[in-house]
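Hello,

Our lab assistant flagged a job as stuck in the queue for most of the afternoon. It eventually completed. Since we weren't sure the result was trustworthy after the delay, we are filing this so someone can double-check. Below is the sequence as submitted and the structure that was eventually returned. Let us know if re-running is recommended.
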Amino acid sequence: MGQGMVVGDWAPQQGILGHLVTGGLMSHCGWNPCMESITMGVPIATWPMPSDQPWNCLLVTKILKVGLVVREWEHREELVTSSTIEKARRRLMTSKEGNDIRKNAVELGNAIRRSMDDGGLLAWSSILSLLVLPDRFISQNEAYNVLS
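-- returned structure --
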């Protein structure tokens, strides 16, 4: 079995996310990494920082259901231990919850890429329309309730 890697400097993120062995992304929940990961069908272990990132975390974990929370925003001042990160990795890669998240990520990524293959431009409305399909992710009312 291979080992994970921590990259402390710039890395070709789209190339890494597109690689078949990439099982997940731990992200600060910036908009670009979230969109790149979602488009590639890679689940996200979220660790939001300030600004829009707690909202992006909510989108990824509660609405799209393509990620899980490593550290809740409310606990942002607490030290994060290696065991916290390992627990999140195990949840994402080996649990029933993680299996569901990974499946959702692949399905949403495939749907987004198909929408771009048809010559259309990917827009926010395209992502929202994917969310409210019957028996898929959440209802439109649920989306508004979570965001309000």
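-- support follow-up --
The delay was a queue issue, not a problem with the job. The result is valid. Strands lie at 25-27, 44-46, 67-69. The longest strand covers residues 25-27.
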